[in-house]
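Journal club prep, shared notes

We agreed each person brings one worked example of a sequence with its structure written out as tokens. Mine is HAMP domain-containing protein. I'm keeping it raw so we can talk through how to read the token line rather than staring at a rendered picture. Sequence first:
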Amino acid sequence: MNHATGAKSVRSVPLRSRLLTIALAGILPLALVAGLGMLSIVSEQTELAKQRSLEATRLAATAVEVELSRSLNVLQALSQSPLLDDGDIDGFADMVRRVLPSVPSWYALLIVSPEGEVLRRVSLHNPPASRTIAEPRSFAEVIRTGIPQVGSMSKGPGGVWGVPLRVPVHQGDTVHYVLTAVLRPQGVADVIANRRLPAGWVNTVLDSNGLRIARSLNHEETLGMPASPTLAAILQENSGEEGIGLSMTMEGNSVYTSFVRLQPSGWVVATGVPTEVVEAGATRVYTLYGGGLLLSLVFAVTAALFATRRINVPMRHLRRAAQAIGHGQAFKAPESEIEEIREVGRALESAAQARLSSEAERDNMLSRLELAQQDLTQQVSDLELVQDLSNRLLQMPALGDQLQAIIDAHARCTAPRMGCWRSATVRPPCAFMPRGAFQLLRWRSWMKRSPAWVPVV
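Then the structure, token by token:
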């Protein structure tokens, strides 16, 4: 605030700052729109990657379900054998031994009585003999419902992991036997390995108890282990048949995990996609956006600085020209491709010309004023002289003295405007005399007594 005038002072801002502000104001809306578009693209790419993961999980779950259905169908076909109806267990065992090579995913086939006693164990690997079953829960469910069951993975007598697939053998309305095929976890691992997932993706198959049946990465090392805490939390929070969440792998890698629950077995097939794979597209978009924005800023700043230089140089010339006008010095208007600056230069030239004309007119008027002042001063002096002469004439009784006083006064009045010479002689003056001077010379007899001033041209 200017306290002297009461007006608010205006803050001085460099031209460079104004141009940079204009450049940034032009970039800001574009950057905002591009940023919103980028966020939309990133969100769509993330959702697309998640959907790809879910599709891969569905395909893997379908393959595992097909493998289970194929094994159950084989078991159901075997359960219809007349040998079992006749109670010929040895003959049935011989037939199964010939069938087992065509089902490489089976480790063994058990013929179990309704009481849970293993009547015969058929295998190509000669497992230890045992009369008890390893996983009784699914066996009890078969006896109760009379329908095929997929059990939970457990270890058999030889300490080998296996998954029991149980099918009842009916005689009338009662269950006479229970055929149990021990599915090797490696068979399930081979199924998911055939999916040929992209690098870094991980497939996992869990049984109804959450134990790991198969894994596409480090299968043997993780066999029989529970799901990772983060995966278990995702499964607990999502009770639906499908879902997606963020989890950590056994190796400590962050992955987007999609899962599918198989019914009625209760198995879970999960696929983990590394977060860097999902976010790779977003990273590329961010990089392109950031690079483009930075490049735009560099171009805008460079253009603003270039324009500032192209404006400031002629503006300095204009400032010097204005200073030259103030000092009355000659100057040359700056040359510029900017029309406004050229117009200011032409206006300064016009102002300089107007100043010169005004100063010349002022000097002329001052000269005339000085001459008028001198003439006025002379006239005032003459009037004072005449006034003084008038006062003295009243005091002079002699006519000669009066004439002498008049001649002296006249000489003093006209001396500045006429040539005068002093003479003590009675020689007549030059013939070039002003009007009335000849009559004054007739009195030259009085001039003999004292010198006189005689006005001449």
